[in-house]
Structure formats: structure tokens, C-alpha cells
Amino acid sequence: DVKVTQSSRYLVKRTGEKVFLECVQDMDHENMFWYRQDPGLGLRLIYFSYDVKMKEKGDIPEGYSVSREKKERFSLILESASTNQTSMYLCASSFGERKLFFGSGTQLSVL
Amino acid sequence: RKEVEQDPGPFNVPEGATVAFNCTYSNSASQSFFWYRQDCRKEPKLLMSVYSSGNEDGRFTAQLNRASQYISLLIRDSKLSDSATYLCVVNGNQGGKLIFGQGTELSVKP
Fold it and tell me: What's the average model confidence in pLDDT over A11-19?
């Protein structure tokens, strides 16, 4: 069964902390994505990657960075967490423009 | 204008009803269209792709109108288990990048 695994289901951090959200997929997909989902705003794309060591900004990259050192792993980094980054973070992967497979999400609270 | 816009929800319908969701998109060059379903506190999952000629999967029918840049999802004979948020998804300017609509919440009541 295909799988996208996010490292934490719930995370609580303090303002100013550096936060790492990890995502691993076992489907050998080229494309990986990080979204955040907020009530009333839907899913918004933060960053995506077409291949190892490649990354592209999405619609709301400010305050975030990413790392893709291996094909199966895509990390989202909050350099200095702020309260407005409290959100549900969803990782996804796909092959070409075929369907997205999502992880179960990380609910991040920044206090 | 948002790249992908959906009908505002929530839609509250009785079991057995037929319900339709609409979605408009702004990028005339978009080639890939999908409907995803998201249950409460769960991740989105693909419900169906939308093809140019329209397509059907059981009680679900998807239509695409390129001229009007519009897609739709029709659900016939609604079940309680259809209660969820339905997300319209369209590919953007950059290759595999997919743009999500805000979602339309459906609640099917007994």
C-alpha cells in the first residue's frame, strides 16, 4: 500500500524556535509538495520539488524553507516560528501530473 | 480573482437528494482537473479526475466546460457517508503544481 508519512501528528513549539517537519514517501515519486491548510483559506502551496535537490516556491513561501537531499524525503523548515504559522501542514507526493497522495498531516501550534 | 473558486458551503441535503458543486478556474491553459474529498480531520483523497468529455463513477458525475473554464461534480442519491468537504483541483502554470479551491462542505442528513 502506498504511503506518505509525516513525522508528527501534533507539534507544539514556541515563537522563535526553528522547526523541522519531515515527510517520507515510499512510492519513488518525483514530485513532493508542502501545503498548509487553514479554515476559510483552503490548501495553499508553500514549496514543491520535482527532483532531488530541486525546489520551487509555491504561493506562500515566506518564512519557510525546504530540503530534498534524497528522493523519498522532503523536509519543511520554519526558520523562526511565529504564531501566524500555526496551521495544519500537509505533505504530498505525485508522479507527473497524476494524483496526489497526502500524508495524514501535522497540526502545528506556535505559542 | 482566485485561481480556483468554488461554491460557498455548507450544503445541507437529505439522504437521497441530488447535489451539484461548481468550480471555476482562471488559467485557460490548465489541462488537468480533479475532485478530491476530505473528511473531517483527515487528509484529502482523490475522488475522481475530470475528463474533457465528462465522466461518471457510480453516483458521481464530473463535467468540464473549457470555454467557460468551469468544472462540476454531481452526486446522485446522496448517502450519509458522502458528508465531507469536496475540493476542486486544477493544475497551475508550473507543470505538476496543483491549485486547490477552498472546498465545499456537504452535510447529508437522514
Answer: 97
